[in-house]
Each structure stands twice: as C-alpha cells, then as structure tokens.
Amino acid sequence: KYSIQGDVAYSRALVYLGKGKIDMNSMPDVAMTLAVTAPFTLGKTTITNIGNLRVKETDRLKALETELKKIGVNVETTFNSIIVLNSKFEIRNSKLINTYNDHRMAMCFAVMGTKIPGILIENPDCVNKTYPCFWRDLERAYLSPIHLGQKHLVLTGMRCSGKSHLGKRIAQHLNRPFVDLDKEIEKDQEMTVAEIVERKGWEYFRKVEQKICSVFAPLSSGKSFVPSVIATGGGVVLNPDNMEVFKKNAVNVFIFADLSVLAERLKKKKGSRPSLTGRDSEIELMEVWQKRRPLYLKYADVVWDNTSGETIKENLNFIF
Description:
- With 320 residues, the chain is α/β, with parallel strands linked by helices.
- It folds into 2 domains: 6-132, UDP-n-acetylglucosamine1-carboxyvinyl-transferase, Chain (Alpha-beta prism); 152-319, P-loop containing nucleotide triphosphate hydrolases (Rossmann fold, 3-Layer(aba) Sandwich).
- It has helices at residues 10-14, 28-37, 60-70, 103-113, 134-142, 163-174, 181-189, 193-214, 240-249, 259-268, 281-299, 311-314, 316-319; strands at residues 19-23, 44-48, 75-78, 81-84, 95-97, 119-121, 152-157, 178-180, 229-231, 250-256, 302-305.
- A 5-stranded parallel sheet has the order 8-9-7-10-11, with helices on both faces. Strands 1-2-4-3 form a 4-stranded mixed sheet, covered by helices on one side.
C-alpha cells in the first residue's frame, strides 16, 4: 500500500479491465501480466502508453500479441498499446509458448497457465535471470488447506505425475492406509498391468479397474469405513462410473506436471508401463494429455502442480 514503486498500482488497474483504456506508463513491465489477465474479463481492454516494451529483452508487445493469438485470444497492438477485444477463447490443444528468452514472458504466461492448463512454457529457466525460485513459488501458490474429515483422498493425474510417490508420503503423514489401484488390480488378476494388457487388452483392464474402484463406494450403514489415500491409474477418469464412486466419499486431487518433466520421468521408466496407443512415447504423451486434461479438471476438487517433485512434500503440514 505504501510502496514507492509504481507497480503497487497494479491491483487498482485490475479494476478497469474490460472497461476501456488503462495507462500503464508508470509500470510497463506488469502491463504484460495485465494483458494476459484481460481475456478473462468481459469487454474491451486497451493498455496504453507502453511503447517502451518494444525495446526490452525482446519486442514484448509483438511477443504478447503472437503468443496470445496462439491460444485464441482476440488481440491486436499499436506502436504503444495492446488491445484485448471482447471474445471467448478456448485452448483446444496444448500450446507451447515462446518466451523469446525473456523472463517476463515466461512469468506472465505462467500466470495465465494457472487458469488454463495446457500452456507449456518454452525455456522456463530464463526466469533465473531475476527470480530463480519463481517456479517453486508458483507451485506453492496452488496449495491450500484440505479438510478431509472422514473422506478418502484420491489422487488422479497422468503417468509419472507423482501420484503413488506422493500418496505414500501423504498416507504416512496422515497415518492412513495407502492404496495403489494398479497394484490392487494386479493382485486381483494375479498378473502385472503389462501382462493384463498384453493378454487381454485395455478394454478388459478398464473393466477390472471399474470393479476395483467400486470397492471404495460408500458403504451401507453398519459396515466399517477406513478413510485411505488412493493413487489411481492415469486412465481412471475415462469411466464416469469410477469418478462417481469417488465423488460421493472422497476429495479428488488432480496432480499435474510440465509435460517435458513427465517425458523425462517416463524415459527413466521405459518398458515398465504398456503403451496406450503404440505410438512414439512423446507423441503419445501429448495425445493422452489432450484427451484426459478436460476430464482431470472436470472431476478435480483440488489441483496441485508437482513439476518440481518437492514442493508438495515440503508443505504437507500446511495442506493437512
């Protein structure tokens, strides 16, 4: 409130989004964050008097226009302004945002990514120039206390997002049983997941998965109920019946990580998991993400970013 830096006026500028012109000459750098926030408001936003953004690490006005258009934002620029027009937009596929090796581009589109999963930041390490801990702090921003009561904690997300690893740590922290659904399926079938898929196919596997999920349906009066931490398989969200079971007596946490990080983790476990499509692993990863992302978000009560692999573990006392 009493800062002498111009940036302190940013919160006041937010009030005028969608309502015409906003002069950002006193804080041109944060005008970039204002520009990526504007698409989420109704009306037309014109951010003016920011021509000096064209002579920073890159031509930031041109870069903003180019990258915003990638994700469907109706935007145009003049020499010293950027105009975000009243339009609905939707990312139909994951989009790689070019940072132009500019830390401000990475940071502002990371903010946008908190609203739109599917934004991928190219060269994320460019933030090290001014804010080396940016990504770790952004992960922390996703975290908020969870009140489980007597409900299960269900972890959903892509392969290698950290569901099982985190699930074990959380179960230990909460003194609850840990359940790995894929392991339960293997016990039931007396085969590994890879063997089940090889011998009987994915359709059969999904049927067994549904049967195992049904075990965790709300129990009738008089039967015991043991709240657990449950790590699901990546495809559990494909069957609405599975998620209906968990909706009734669980808190569902969707865990995600940057796709480049998931790709590296998958390489380290190459051969341990059957292919879903038979295609190249990185192509498969992108295709599966695009198909499942809307479902993960649809059923999630909470979303966690586990890109670093450390932030969530470090903050269990805060979360629970």
